[in-house]
Design a protein that fits this description.
The chain has 3 helices and 17 strands. It is mainly β and 252 residues long. The protein has a 5-stranded antiparallel β-sheet. A hairpin with a 2-residue loop joins β5 and β6.
C-alpha cells in the first residue's frame, strides 16, 4: 500500500462539500462554491451579472491577478468566464470559486490510482483547509480547492512533510478566507474603528444585518452566519459588496 496520498479525492468528484478553489487559466471549469456571482469587472463596486451555483460549467476566457482590496500586498486571481445560460453571460469571477478542467482531470487520475485502496480511518476538519494534489506546502500551485471546517473525509494514507520555514509569502492552510457578498442593508454611521458586523444569508443571496450590533448581545452571534469585516469609517449602502467572513472560516 502506498502512503503518498493524503486525502481521499473521491469527495472532490462528488462536489458535495462547501469549498473554494484557487485556479489557473483553462478552457472550462466547474463552479465549486455553493453560490457565486459573475460580475462586470474585478472592481469592488462592480455589478453582479449572474449568480452561478455549485456544479455549473463555465468557459474560462482569461485569468488575471488583482490586488486584494483588504490587503494591497496580496494578489487575488480572477477569471473572465462565459456562463452557459440562455444569455451566455460574460464577466469576472474569483478563481477560488471555479475548478478548471485540467485540475479536475488530475484529481480523477488520483482517484483512479487509489480506487482499490481501503480507507484506514475517517477524519473531520477542525478548520477550513486546502485540498492539494500533493503534500507539498511550499507554494499554492498544487491547491485544488478549499474545504470548509467540519468537512468529513476518508484517510487512505499519510506522508509527513516539513512545515515551510516561511509561510508569509504563501496562503496558509488555516487562514480565514473572506468572500465578496452583496449587502442588503444600510450602515450609514460607521465607527471610527474597524468593525465586525453580525450578518446572515437571505433567500436572495445577500446579507441581512442583525438589528442590534451591541457587543453584549450574544443572541446575534447565534443568529448570524458570519461577520462583515468593515474598515474603520466606511459607510455601507444597500447593494454594495462587502467583505464577508463565514463562521466556517473562523471555527477551530
Amino acid at each position: 500500500m502506498r502512503f503518498s496520498k493524503t486525502l481521499l479525492v473521491f469527495a472532490l468528484l462528488l462536489l458535495s462539500l462547501g469549498c473554494s478553489t484557487l485556479a489557473n487559466k483553462s478552457s472550462t471549469g466547474v463552479i465549486v462554491a455553493r453560490r457565486a456571482q459573475i460580475r462586470s469587472s474585478t472592481a469592488v463596486v462592480a455589478a453582479d451579472l449572474l449568480q452561478v451555483n455549485r456544479g455549473d460549467v463555465v468557459d474560462i476566457l482569461e485569468a488575471t491577478d488583482v490586488n486584494d482590496p483588504s490587503d494591497n500586498s496580496r494578489k487575488e486571481r480572477w477569471l473572465r468566464v462565459k456562463a452557459r445560460d440562455s444569455d451566455t453571460t460574460e464577466g469576472w469571477i474569483e478563481a477560488r470559486n471555479v475548478m478548471p478542467d485540467d485540475v479536475l482531470k488530475e484529481s480523477e487520475k488520483l482517484a483512479a490510482e487509489d480506487k482499490d485502496i481501503t480507507a484506514q480511518a475517517t477524519g473531520q476538519l477542525r478548520a477550513s483547509s486546502n485540498l492539494r494534489l500533493s503534500p507539498d506546502r511550499s507554494g499554492n500551485e498544487n491547491i485544488m480547492m478549499r474545504l470548509d471546517s467540519g468537512s468529513s473525509f476518508d484517510i487512505i494514507g499519510w506522508k509527513r512533510v516539513p512545515k515551510p520555514k516561511s509561510s508569509e509569502a504563501i496562503e496558509t492552510d488555516v487562514a480565514p478566507k473572506s468572500i465578496q457578498v452583496r449587502a442588503d442593508f444600510d450602515w450609514p454611521q460607521p465607527d471610527s474603528r474597524r468593525e465586525f458586523l453580525r450578518v446572515k444569508w437571505n433567500a436572495q443571496g445577500g446579507l441581512e444585518l442583525f438589528p442590534t450590533q451591541d457587543s453584549a448581545v450574544l443572541t446575534s452571534t447565534a443568529w448570524a452566519d458570519g461577520l462583515v469585516d468593515n474598515p474603520a469609517g466606511r459607510a455601507i449602502r444597500k447593494g454594495e459588496p462587502v467583505r464577508f467572513l463565514p463562521y466556517s472560516e473562523l471555527y477551530w
